[in-house]
Amino acid sequence: MASPIARPPRPRGFWQRLDQVSRDLAPAALTVVLVLAMGVPVGLPAQHGVMPVPALAAVFFWTLYRPGLMSPLAVFGIGVLSDLLTAAPLGLNPLLLLLLHAAVLTQRRVLTRQTFLLVWVVFALLAAAVLGLGWGFRTLLAFRLLPAEPALYELALTVAVYPALSWLFVRVERSLAAAG
């Protein structure tokens, strides 16, 4: 009996390719929007010290659940944008976000099978490590001991808003999966 001949896939049209590219860029674009939103001055004193760091949550979530959509290049670009908006030493946030990205990739197989509560705890620990490392680098670059309170506030707010951001990311991920 002859086996059926496999037909070559139909070439995809311009609109289908554009649709796929937009789906692939959605997580990074959403992260950029969140970073830009946190950079908008709202008139709070010491605003940068009391704002959550949505880039940490986004890089953590997308690297954990859809690593193909959060490439190291996208993580680097998000970090550079964050440096520019927060007047951080250029290269600090890309380094920290790439370290987070690598840490999540190494534990991805274990974490994807865990409950939300455990994933949230792991996020809190990784966020503490990343923000603590960032505070340490800033202290070294300033040649003086910087106050730790702003970093602690950033950590507390970032961990506190993770469930809401995660809910948003899950909705986006489901819409990407349903439409694709």
Please give a handful of descriptors for the protein shown:
180 residues; mainly alpha; 6 helices; 0% strand; elongated
Fraction of residues in β-strands: under 5%
Overall pLDDT metric: 89
Helix content: over 70%
Please give the number of β-strands.
Answer: 0
**Sheet/helix structural class:** mainly alpha
Largest sheet: number of strands, sense, barrel closure: none
> What's the quaternary structure here?
single chain
- Work out the radius of gyration: 19 Å
pLDDT < 50 runs, ≥5 residues: none
The CA-CA distance between the termini, in Å, is: 36 Å
Shape: elongated
Number of helices: 6
Order of helices and strands: HHHHHH
Number of domains: 1
Can you describe what's shown?
This protein is an all-alpha fold. The chain has one domain. Helix content is 73%, strand content 0%. The chain is built from six helices and no strands. The chain has helices spanning 14-39, 54-65, 72-86, 92-111, 116-142, 149-179. The longest helix is centred in the last third of the chain and has 31 residues, at 149-179. It is elongated, with a radius of gyration of 19 Å. The two termini are 36 Å apart. The mean pLDDT is 89.
